[in-house]
Amino acid sequence: MEETISLKELAQTLKKRLKLIVLLTIAAALISGIISYFVLTPIYQSSTQLLVNQAKTEQQMYNPAEVQTNLQLISTYNVIMKSPAILEKVAQNLALDLTPEQLSSKITVASEQDSQVVNIAVQDENPGLAADIANETARVFQEEIVTIMNVDNVSILAPAELGENPSPVKPQPLLNIAIAIVVGLMAGVGLAFLLEYLDNTIKSEQDIEKLLDLPVLGGVTTIAAGSNRPAKKTPVQKKAVRGETLGS
């Protein structure tokens, strides 16, 4: 016999395990909130911008070919900016006890498509140090690129500044809690259906009919001893019989 599950049965299963689903969802949200607010260390970000563009004099005109050359050089600049040749001097100038690899992991260099502006973003637990690293990286790169590439087409467009009340970029507690609620809800629903699937006990006449493929003609209720009426909320026992008329 092919077994089918109706939407009504699914709804009954969810209603039956509603407390479990709610508890798992609340637990996931609480755990996420505790970790986000009290365990994870806040990380701050500061950024500076460089402009890759040859300095112009009043007599020089706009040269599209030169702009294209600068755009092609940006990818090379992005690599050089995070190289040990630059980061070693940054760490030395700021007296940081960090290797170039450790310093590189804090720095992100990116440029907008078809733009001559390069963004240097630094993330650190100390917002002031993040701004210092960003500015020093830009300054050292501007000085060293003249020697490394024999060009002088980099200028600092916007230095990194430390605001009065900097906000961390991560963790994001509200986002983490929202994700935890969704995950907890999904886990609760999944666990509810799993428990229902593993539960093979007989609880109703319908369960007997599905199990034995026989109609239920009657039931016998458990009677409490010394009482003339059925015990309140006691388990009910059902007896399945074959659909045949008993002969006298």
UniProtKB/TrEMBL annotation:
Residues 230-240 have a biased composition (Basic residues). Coiled coil: none annotated. This is Capsular biosynthesis protein. Residues 142-194 form the Tyrosine-protein kinase G-rich domain. Belongs to the CpsC/CapA family. It comes from Domibacillus enclensis. It is found in: Cell membrane. InterPro entries: Bact_polysacc_biosynth/exp, GNVR, LPS_length_determ_N. Pfam families: GNVR (PF13807), Wzz (PF02706). The chain crosses the membrane at residues 20-40, 174-195. GO terms for cellular component: plasma membrane. It is a multi-pass membrane protein.
